[in-house]
C-alpha cells in the first residue's frame, strides 16, 4: 500500500493506493485551509500521522477504525504556537514520532514525542537552518535529515535517535532538497533545482560526490525507498513486534516498471502504446487525464472517490446524488422560516397568523368585544364580562380571555372570518345586482315589442301597356318588405301619396323616391 498527499484534489487530502488491487481510497477529508507537508505510517498500530504547516498541527488517524465512526478530518495530536512542522517520521519499534520545525525566524529544531503526544522533547536545535525532511533507519538506529541551508548550500546529516553522535554526511550547494528516504545501503533525496533524485551511501567517504539516480521533466515531490521490514528489523531486539508482521504473510511483488512517458502526455494515467490516447488512473478523466472526477461534481457537499467514482457527502440541508436539492426549498409556506433539526429534517417557524408543519393552516382571527363590568366593593371581586358571540359559539368569554387584554376585553371566536365572509358578501351583492339588471333588461325588451309596426297595402292599376311583361295589377304589403322579405315586384308608393315633408328630408333617400316614381309612371312618360 502506498500513502500519498494530493493537493490538487477537491475534497480529500491523503489517499491510499493498494498495489494488489490497483484501487485508490481517500483517507483524510480536505479542509478549507491546509498545507500538508509530510506523512508517516506506523504498521504496528495502523496509525497515520501528518503535519500541517498552515494550521501548525500534527494530526493522526487510525486506519483500523470503522470509517463510519472516525473523524474524516483526523484528530489533532499537537497544536503549536510558533513552530512550523514539516517533515515527519515514525519509529515503530520504540513508539516515537519525529518531526522537523522550519520556523527560521525564531529557531528551527528537530523534535520527537510518543504516539500519544507525551514526552515531547527537542533533540536537535543547534547548527540547523531549515530541516525539510527526515527519515529513520531501524536497523542502524540512526536519524537522517536534509537541511536546506541559507543561500545555495545544503547538507545531509545524521544522528542517533536521541540527537547524539551527530554527523554531516554531505555538505554541498546548488541543490533545492525537498524529500528524503533511506534504504538498506543508500540515502536518496529529491532535488527541485535539477528535478533529479540523488543518492549517496549510508557511510560515505569524506569526499563523496552525489550520484544522479533518475531525472524527471517535472519537479518530483516525494520519494520512498524499497526497504523491507525484514531488512530493517533483523537482529534488532526493540523491533520484535514489528518483525512479527512479516511472519505468515503472503509475499507481494511490489516492484513495478514505471512507463518512460509517465506524466509527460497523460497527467494522471498512462499513454496507450501507438496511440495519442490515455488510460486514466482511477478518479481522473479527460483526454489527458487532467480532470479529477470530483471537479464541480458536488454542488453542496464534499466529494470523495470510491472505486474510481465520485460520491458526495452532502452538507446540512441538502440531498441528492450531487447534493443539488435544498430540502428547505419550497417546504415552508406563507413566508415561514425553514431550518434543519437534529435529525436532518426540515422544520418551519411560522408567522403569527399561520400554523402547521409547513405553515399551511391559517389561524382563525378573533374579534374583541367590550362589556361594562359590574361594580364591586372589593378589588379581588370577580368581574362579570360578557362577549357578543355568534350563534355558533356560546362559550363563556372567560375561557377565551387573553393575557394581554384588560378585564373588559375578551375574545369571541367563530365570528367574522376575514377570508370566508368577505367572499360570501361579495357573491350576495353580485347576485342582487345581476337580478336588478335582468329586471331592467326585461322592461326595455317589453317596451320595444309595444312599438307600432308599419302595415300598409297599396293597389296599383295602370291602363297603359308596359314595355315589358308586367302584371296589370300589383298588390304589395309594405310590412313584408320592411321585414326583409323577398318581393317579386319592387315596392313603391304613388308619388301623389308621398308626404311633402319626406320629399326634402334627406339626400340619402332621393334614390328610393326616384325608384317609386319611375314605377308609378308609364314607360313612355
TrEMBL record:
Subcellular locations according to the entry: Cell membrane; Membrane
The Gene Ontology CC terms held by the record are: plasma membrane
**Mind listing the UniProt keywords for this protein, alphabetically?**
Cell membrane, Differentiation, Disulfide bond, EGF-like domain, Glycoprotein, Membrane, Oogenesis, Repeat, Signal, Spermatogenesis, Transmembrane, Transmembrane helix
Primary location group: membrane
Q: In what residue span(s) does the EGF-like domain sit?
A: 324-360
- What membrane topology is given? Single-pass type I membrane protein
Provide the GO biological process annotations.
canonical Wnt signaling pathway; oogenesis; spermatogenesis
What is an example of a GO molecular function annotated in this UniProt entry?
Wnt receptor activity
Top-level taxon of the source organism: Eukaryota
The membrane spanning regions, by residue number, are 423-443
Keyword Zinc appears in the UniProt entry: no
Task: Cite the repeat ranges for LDL-receptor class B.
Answer: 95-140, 141-186
What is a single Pfam family found in this protein's UniProt entry?
Ldl_recept_b
Where in the chain are disulfide-linked cysteines found? 328-338, 350-359
Q: Which PANTHER family match?
A: PROTEIN CUEBALL (PTHR46513:SF42), VITELLOGENIN RECEPTOR-LIKE PROTEIN-RELATED-RELATED (PTHR46513)
Give the record's family classification: Belongs to the cueball family.
Protein's UniProt name = Protein cueball
Species source reads: Manduca sexta (Tobacco hawkmoth)
Amino acid at each position: 500500500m502506498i500513502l500519498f498527499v494530493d493537493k490538487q484534489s477537491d475534497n480529500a487530502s491523503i489517499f491510499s493506493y493498494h498495489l494488489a488491487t490497483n484501487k485508490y481510497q481517500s483517507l483524510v477529508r480536505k479542509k478549507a485551509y491546509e498545507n500538508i507537508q509530510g506523512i508517516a505510517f506506523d504498521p504496528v498500530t495502523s496509525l497515520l500521522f501528518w503535519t500541517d504547516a498552515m494550521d501548525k498541527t500534527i494530526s493522526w488517524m487510525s486506519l483500523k477504525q470503522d470509517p463510519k465512526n472516525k473523524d474524516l478530518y483526523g484528530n489533532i495530536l499537537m497544536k503549536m504556537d510558533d513552530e512550523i512542522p514539516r517533515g515527519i517520521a515514525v519509529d515503530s519499534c520504540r513508539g516515537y514520532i519525529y518531526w522537523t520545525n522550519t520556523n527560521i525566524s525564531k529557531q528551527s529544531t528537530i523534535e520527537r514525542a510518543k504516539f500519544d503526544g507525551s514526552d515531547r522533547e527537542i533533540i536537535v536545535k543547534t547548527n540547523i537552518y531549515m530541516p525539510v525532511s527526515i527519515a529513520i533507519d531501524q536497523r542502524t538506529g540512526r536519524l537522517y535529515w536534509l537541511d536546506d541551508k541559507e543561500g545555495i548550500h545544503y547538507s545531509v546529516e545524521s544522528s542517533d535517535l536521541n540527537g547524539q553522535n551527530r554527523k554531516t554526511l554531505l555538505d554541498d550547494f546548488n541543490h533545492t532538497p525537498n524529500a528524503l528516504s533511506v534504504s538498506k545501503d543508500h540515502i536518496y533525496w529529491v532535488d527541485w533545482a535539477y528535478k533529479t533524485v540523488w543518492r549517496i551511501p549510508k557511510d560515505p567517504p569524506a569526499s563523496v560526490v552525489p550520484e544522479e539516480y533518475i531525472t524527471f521533466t517535472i519537479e518530483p515531490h516525494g520519494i520512498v525507498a524499497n526497504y523491507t521490514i525484514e531488512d530493517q528489523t533483523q537482529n534488532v531486539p526493540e523491533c520484535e513486534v514489528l518483525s512479527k508482521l512479516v511472519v505468515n504473510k503472503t509475499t507481494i511483488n511490489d516492484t513495478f516498471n514505471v512507463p518512460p512517458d509517465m506524466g509527460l502526455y497523460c497527467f494522471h494515467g498512462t499513454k496507450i502504446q501507438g496511440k495519442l490516447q490515455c488510460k486514466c488512473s482511477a478518479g481522473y478523466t479527460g483526454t489527458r487525464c487532467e480532470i479529477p472526477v470530483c471537479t464541480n461534481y458536488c454542488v453542496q457537499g464534499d466529494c470523495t472517490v470510491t472505486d474510481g467514482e465520485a460520491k458526495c457527502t452532502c452538507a446540512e440541508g441538502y440531498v441528492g446524488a450531487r447534493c443539488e436539492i435544498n430540502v428547505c426549498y419550497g417546504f415552508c409556506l406563507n413566508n415561514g422560516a425553514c431550518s434543519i433539526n437534529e435529525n436532518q429534517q426540515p422544520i418551519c417557524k411560522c408567522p403569527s397568523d399561520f400554523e402547521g408543519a409547513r405553515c399551511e393552516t391559517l389561524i382563525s382571527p378573533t374579534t374583541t368585544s367590550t362589556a361594562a363590568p359590574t361594580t364591586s366593593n372589593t378589588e379581588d371581586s370577580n368581574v362579570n364580562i360578557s362577549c357578543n358571540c355568534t350563534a355558533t359559539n356560546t362559550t363563556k368569554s372567560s375561557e377565551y380571555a387573553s393575557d394581554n387584554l384588560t378585564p373588559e376585553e375578551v375574545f369571541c371566536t367563530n365570528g367574522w372570518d376575514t377570508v370566508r365572509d368577505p367572499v360570501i358578501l361579495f357573491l350576495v351583492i353580485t347576485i342582487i345586482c345581476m337580478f336588478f339588471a335582468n329586471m331592467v333588461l326585461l322592461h326595455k325588451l317589453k317596451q320595444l315589442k309595444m312599438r307600432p309596426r308599419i302595415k300598409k297595402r297599396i293597389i296599383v292599376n295602370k291602363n297603359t301597356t308596359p314595355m315589358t311583361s308586367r302584371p296589370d295589377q300589383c298588390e304589395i304589403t309594405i310590412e313584408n318588405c320592411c321585414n326583409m322579405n323577398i318581393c317579386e315586384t319592387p315596392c313603391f308608393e304613388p308619388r301623389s301619396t308621398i308626404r311633402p315633408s319626406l320629399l326634402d328630408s334627406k339626400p340619402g333617400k332621393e334614390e328610393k323616391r326616384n325608384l317609386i316614381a319611375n314605377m308609378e309612371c308609364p314607360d313612355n312618360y
